[in-house]
Design a protein that fits this description.
The protein has helices at 16-26, 46-58, 99-107, 117-120, 123-126, 129-135, 151-168, 186-201, 205-214, 222-234, 249-252, 273-288, 300-303, 332-345, 408-419; strands at 2-3, 38-41, 65-71, 80-82, 87-90, 93-97, 113-114, 140-146, 172-177, 182-184, 239-247, 258-267, 308-314, 317-323, 361-368, 372-374, 386-391, 394-398, 428-432, 434-437. By secondary structure, it is α/β, with parallel strands linked by helices.
Length: 438
């Protein structure tokens, strides 16, 4: 059976050449890839949610098979359905169903039923496929649509999927297709979506269900997300990260009735000790005004001396970033403590972090190598090297591999502005590398 596209030309371009061009504009080719167990990705028209889907899928190391779980918008077919054979067609070609794994999942499930009708007009999985094909043309899928059922059923489906993956000894990526709040004001949508996202980041599917119901959050893919969390935890999930959040209003400029979109990755790795130290430092200082002492037992990275930058992000947006170019403390641990407090409370671009914001913060710690002089800007690479621009006593610094900074000239321009150096003033250039922990 071939499942033909039903929203090509509406949600995304119907011509392969135009679709590839659009996908290229939405993804980040050079971003560092991560091993993930699962992803939450939106499914609206690409002009609205494509930037979120593109960024979150750009971050992951692709496996041969994706298990795609989406809601049932059409109401057609079985309420809990899986396709175990056939191909899905898009303008970029055909995507084969991983029949062996799909059949194993079906055979081990008390809830899923073989059914193609539920998938025939459902867009939530279809719009994910061109992104997957862009990165891995030979990717295979297991399509699952989850309609109305009890909350315990969604969790059981997740556990059944995880059991099949373990039995097959396969590495896959689980993907829950979901938009967030629908057609409320920007303020209301962000407030409600923050609550849902917080539960997902805690890997707490019961809390997600409770908040969706009690707060009336119109998150269309809450059921697939519950199954995703349930399966991911069975497979060893330890942490989750919000990669990007935006609304349709951020695209159209109309904030009166928006739809929210979140891109989230779920991983089997715990927070690195350096990041954990930054997080604990900020929480201790903001809540209690207390400056933490370094851990009694320092890791090897904490014992070194180096410049350190601590960056705070809230819902994918910068919330504070302060650091030192060269070491000013006796070790990296103390450098992190000092700079984490400064990032949270002394970045002149932002007000101090409030206790109510702590739950929404994400942390990055960059440990810098010693800066070296650069004879010519041709030696620089904005993805690999950070830059220091110096003119007399004025110095501007920019970390490497920042979103939207794709050229050396732009790096230097930003550094000049930060240091108050005019475009025609002579400068000295230095570069450095970072070890980034998040």
């Amino acid at each position: 059976m071939i499942r033909h596209p039903v929203v090509a030309g509406q949600f995304y371009p119907a011509l392969a050449s135009q679709l590839r061009t659009m996908l290229k504009s939405l993804v980040e080719e050079k971003v560092e890839k991560e091993d993930v167990l699962g992803v939450v990705s939106p499914h609206a028209g690409y002009i609205y949610s494509g930037a979120v889907a593109g960024v979150v899928l750009s971050k992951i190391k692709f496996k041969d098979t994706f298990i795609l779980m989406g809601p049932n918008h059409s109401g057609r077919g079985k309420p809990l359905s899986i396709m175990t054979q056939g191909t899905w067609k898009t303008p970029l070609g055909e995507v084969e169903i991983d029949a062996e794994l799909a059949r194993r999942i079906l055979d081990g499930s008390r809830h899923l039923q073989e059914d193609a009708a539920a998938h025939q007009y459902e867009h939530s999985l279809e719009v994910q496929l061109p992104f997957l094909q862009y990165f891995k043309p030979e990717v295979r899928i297991v399509p699952i649509v989850l309609g109305f059922a009890g909350s315990s059923v969604y969790k059981e489906v997740g556990k059944e999927i995880a059991r099949a993956i373990k039995e097959a000894k396969r590495e896959v990526v689980l993907l829950a297709s979901s938009d967030m709040t629908h057609y409320e004001s920007q303020e209301s949508a962000k407030r409600k979506d923050n609550q849902a996202i917080e539960a997902i980041l805690k890997l707490d599917e019961d809390e997600l269900l409770r908040r969706v119901q009690e707060l009336d959050i119109s998150m269309c893919g809450y059921a697939p997300t519950v199954s995703l969390l349930s399966a991911a935890k069975e497979l060893g999930a330890k942490s989750a990260e919000l990669v990007k959040y935006q609304t349709s209003g951020d695209v159209t400029g109309d904030y009166s009735a928006v739809v929210g979109y979140a891109g989230i990755v779920i991983k089997a790795v715990e927070m690195h000790p350096l990041v954990k130290l930054a997080k604990k430092t900020v929480e201790s200082y903001v809540r209690e005004g207390r400056i933490m002492s370094p851990p009694e037992e320092l890791t090897l990275e904490m014992k070194e001396r180096a410049g350190v930058f601590v960056s705070l992000h809230k819902h994918g947006e910068l919330r504070g970033c302060i650091g030192t170019i060269e070491p000013s403390q006796k070790n990296v641990a103390e450098e992190i403590i000092a700079n984490a407090i400064s990032s949270a409370t002394r970045d002149p671009r932002f007000p101090p972090v409030a206790p109510s914001e702590l739950k929404d913060l994400e942390y990055k710690v960059d440990v810098l190598t010693h800066p070296r002089p650069v004879a010519d800007k041709s030696e620089l690479d904005p993805k690999k090297y950070g830059v220091i621009v110096e003119c007399g006593w004025r110095r501007g610094l920019l970390l490497p591999d920042l979103e939207g900074v794709d050229t050396v000239d732009y790096q230097i321009e930003i550094c000049r502005r930060k240091a108050g150096i005019d475009p025609d003033e002579p400068i000295k250039l230095y570069c450095f590398e970072v070890k980034r922990y998040k």
